[in-house]
Amino acid sequence: NVLLWGFGAPQPLSSFGSMSAGVVNRMRFDEPGAKFCGCDSSGLAGVWNFELARGSGLDRRPVDLIQAHSKRCYDVCFLDKGTLLGTAGTGSASSVCVWDLLMPPSCACVAALNLHDSSANSIAHCEQ
After folding, report:
1. pLDDT tens, residue by residue, 50-61
2. DSSP 3-state assignment of 105?
3. Which of 3, 59, 61, 121 could form a disulfide with 12 if both were Cys (CB 3.0 to 4.6 A apart)?
4. What is the model's pTM?
């Protein structure tokens, strides 16, 4: 599970269901703090929404789940207000991908970049 801790809190504030049995590599919050995303060693990327998770018990599942890379997903970030997600990983045809979370999973990859070594370890978004 993914545990949400508060500063100085003796125990987790909340627990969120994991994406898979893989090890979580990275977690990031969106700018307003309403969602967070994560990626794991099995290549999955997931998004959790705090508003949708309220009152859902202790084991809240991701609201969006994408098989971003066939081997590992090393990094993930929000690219806008929470509808576009960027991933960096290895094991698929593209090492950097942009995902539109409003699209069906089969066509959600709207942009892809293949690096020379077929792997990317990190991704960042910077607004101009």
Report:
1. 776 555 555 578
2. helix
3. 3
4. 0.85
Find out whether 5 and 12 touch, Cβ atoms under 8 Å: yes
β-bridge partners, 113: 96
The tokens of 79 are what? Answer: 């690219």
Is the separation of the CB atoms in 78 and 124 below 8 Å? no
> In the chain, where do the E strands start and end?
2-4, 14-16, 24-29, 35-40, 44-49, 64-67, 72-78, 84-90, 96-100, 109-113
Alpha helices in the chain (DSSP H): 50-53
Q: Identity (one letter) of the amino acid at 4?
A: L
Work out the number of other CB atoms within 10 angstroms of the CB of residue 128: 2
79: how many CB neighbours lie within 10 A of its CB? Answer: 18
pLDDT of residue 59: 54
pLDDT tens track for 67-99 = 999 899 999 999 987 789 999 999 877 899 999
Q: What does DSSP assign to residue 52?
A: H
